[in-house]
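R.M. (postdoc): so does anyone remember the format we settled on? I'll just put the structure tokens first.
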């Protein structure tokens, strides 16, 4: 069983180094978790995005449903809770989302009719109110940032923000914002709302790519070099151990390829160090003046 144990150790060490080598990719692709309120000045990998100046906005989608019209109102505020003042229908507390709401959907039906004087007037009926993202005692916002993929390295990739905390009849809801770096800011654009997930696209100008610190760049290069060398050594040991086991039925330490060489490595290193020390002394060792 010793040979199996040794092979397992080699395999575990190999994949551990692979994961270590991919740390940079994980930091880019995996979400950066934000605990409570949303910190909207965020840096992911080498890219900075400042969303602090984004105000709460309303997205209006109207569909003809004769004899009335269906109006979908999406109130969004990525950085702080919505203010009651933004809601169109706020005479009744049941016509809008409560406090600590970041994203709210209000479904309204409108219908035009003539009054006694023959003038047109609009009647409104708030049919549904849905809290899509919130942060209160019952629901946690659990905001998270991540980067979208981008092939052009000279550009800044879109920033993805996910807000949670919405529930309806036991089903969770969430809002996903895609912030696209642009020369000018724009109002948010509705993409889709399906299976409880609202997707919004928003162009922003406050984004940039941070220059890489030279010391950090050198450190990363040296770390990657050591990682590659370690992977090559482990690959050599793993393949050699498998070969010795299947061909020579070796066990235990005999699985190590070229075992005699590795056994002599410490002595070789010692001899090299002694040679270097003697060379540094300039050959004066062993000579004494008369």
């Amino acid at each position: 069983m010793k040979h199996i144990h040794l092979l397992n150790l080699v395999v575990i060490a190999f994949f551990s180094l692979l994961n270590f080598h991919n740390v940079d990719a994980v930091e880019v692709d995996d979400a950066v978790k934000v605990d409570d309120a949303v910190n909207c000045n965020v840096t992911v990998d080498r890219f900075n995005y400042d969303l602090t100046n984004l105000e709460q906005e309303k997205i209006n989608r109207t569909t003809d449903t004769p004899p009335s019209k269906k109006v979908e109102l999406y109130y969004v505020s990525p950085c702080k809770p919505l203010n009651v003042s933004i809601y169109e229908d706020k005479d009744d507390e049941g016509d809008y989302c409560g406090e600590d709401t970041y994203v709210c959907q209000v479904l309204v039906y409108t219908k035009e009719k003539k009054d006694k004087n023959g003038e047109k007037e609009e009647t409104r009926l708030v049919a549904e109110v849905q809290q899509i993202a919130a942060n209160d005692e019952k629901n946690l916002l659990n905001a998270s940032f991540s980067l979208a993929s981008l092939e052009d390295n000279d550009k800044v990739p879109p920033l993805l923000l996910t807000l949670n905390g919405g529930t309806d009849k036991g089903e969770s809801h969430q809002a996903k914002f895609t912030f696209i770096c642009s020369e000018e800011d724009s109002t948010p654009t509705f993409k889709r709302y399906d299976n409880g997930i609202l997707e919004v696209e928003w162009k922003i100008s406050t984004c940039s790519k941070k220059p890489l610190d030279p010391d950090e760049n050198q450190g990363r290069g040296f770390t990657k070099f050591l990682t590659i060398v370690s992977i090559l050594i482990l690959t050599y040991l793993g393949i050699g151990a498998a070969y010795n086991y299947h061909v020579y039925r070796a066990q235990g330490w005999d699985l190590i390829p070229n075992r005699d060489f590795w056994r002599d490595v410490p002595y070789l290193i010692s001899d090299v160090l002694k040679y270097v020390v003697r060379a540094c002394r300039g050959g004066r060792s062993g000579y004494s003046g008369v």
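R.M.: ...and that's the designed sequence above, right after the tokens. Also worth knowing: Helices lie at 2-21, 23-29, 214-248, 259-280. The chain has two domains: 2-22+212-280, 31-209.
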